[in-house]
Hints:
Elements: H1 4-37, H2 40-54, H3 57-80, H4 86-116, H5 123-158
Pfam family, one: Anthrone_oxy
Organism: Streptomyces curacoi
Transmembrane segments: 6-31, 52-81, 87-107
Amino acid sequence: MIDGPYFVLIVIGVVGTGLVAGVFCAFSTFVMRGLAALPPAQGVAAMKAINVTALMPAFMLVFIGSAVLCAVIAVVTFVLWPHEGTVELLLGSGLFLFGSFGVTMVANVPRNDALLKLDAGTPEAAAYWSTYVREWTAWNHVRTVASAAATVSYVLALS
């Protein structure tokens, strides 16, 4: 049985990865569909505003904090190598670090940066918008599944 401070770390990991999964799930299931239904200039302007707002401390604390926590859980797991939950803890950490945080850095952020450089009402922005929505959302599905799977993996480690 995992207990003490290690247990607390994992419970916080469950909460953090679960919160991130929820945010990503919201974007995959209705936010991006709503934005895509807007005229391109409005959709681009709204998404640019969302991307700027996402960099505020409230979300960054949960997202980056969860990534740091997952890395700590992985290191502690390697050091302690508990009799129970080792595979689940390492799997959960890997899923979040690579499938959520890593995908964000290599797939979603570059698309956000490209969108940010465009003026919302221009033909270039309108032309890029449908590609952006399709590609960004596809990668967001990956982040959603990876974050949710990390949460489940951490919960299984505690059971």
